[in-house]
């Protein structure tokens, strides 16, 4: 009887200890504020940038932070994203792209466009986007720039490592920096396409 009581007390203590660990809520952060309206003096431009939903593997695109350890992928027990990672990355990428291309309107897929707009659509397919066991974070992705008819103007592979630190907050910050680096690379390709009289790809 005493043994059963001790076991019940032990289980109760363990459950209480787990419940006492607060959940950390994480978010990717753009280098410029998200959701800013398109500047009216750019609204008449014919060249707009449309950012599609970012495609991320299901084993990474979870509400809980996924980390790579020596034993493989592991779910952080008390660290959760405030929103699905794919949608959040799409919004942050668009905001960072707007920073890289201040004179070109950047919108999310599905946003209304003015008539006669010749859009460039940005499509990103992520293969890796998570903290690593060595204290860094990695973003590896293929990105494509498409014209209004869906024809590929540019296709490239991107890989970036950033400092991750030792906490979920610093890991999320490192992942935000990696998205900003991706936006910078895509912005440079879009600028080159704008300058080229007949774009042939990147």
Structure explained in plain terms:
By secondary structure, the protein is an alpha/beta fold. The protein has a single domain (26-195), classed as 3-Layer(aba) Sandwich (Rossmann fold), CATH 3.40.50. The chain has helices spanning 2-19, 85-100, 168-195, and strands spanning 24-26, 49-51, 64-69, 72-81, 106-108, 120-131, 136-146, 152-163. Strands 5-2-6-7-8 form a 5-stranded mixed β-sheet, with helices on one face. Strands 1-4-3 form a 3-stranded mixed β-sheet, with helices on one face. A hairpin with a 4-residue loop joins strand 6 and strand 7 (136-146). The longest helix is centred in the C-terminal third of the chain and has 28 residues, at 168-195. It is elongated, with a radius of gyration of 21 Å. The model is unreliable at 5-13 (pLDDT under 50).
Mean pLDDT: 86
Overall number of structural domains = 1
Task: Tell me how many strands there are.
Answer: 8
Beta content: 25-35%
Label the CATH architecture. Answer: 3-Layer(aba) Sandwich
- What summary fits the major beta sheet? 5 strands, mixed
Q: Taking Cα atoms only, what radius of gyration do you get, to the nearest Å?
A: 21 Å
User: Order of SSEs, N→C?
Assistant: HEEEEHEEEEH
Q: Secondary-structure blueprint of this entry?
A:
Blueprint: H1 2-19, E1 24-26, E2 49-51, E3 64-69, E4 72-81, H2 85-100, E5 106-108, E6 120-131, E7 136-146, E8 152-163, H3 168-195
Parallel strand pairs: 1-4, 2-5, 2-6
Antiparallel strand pairs: 3-4, 6-7, 7-8
Helix pairs in contact: 2-3
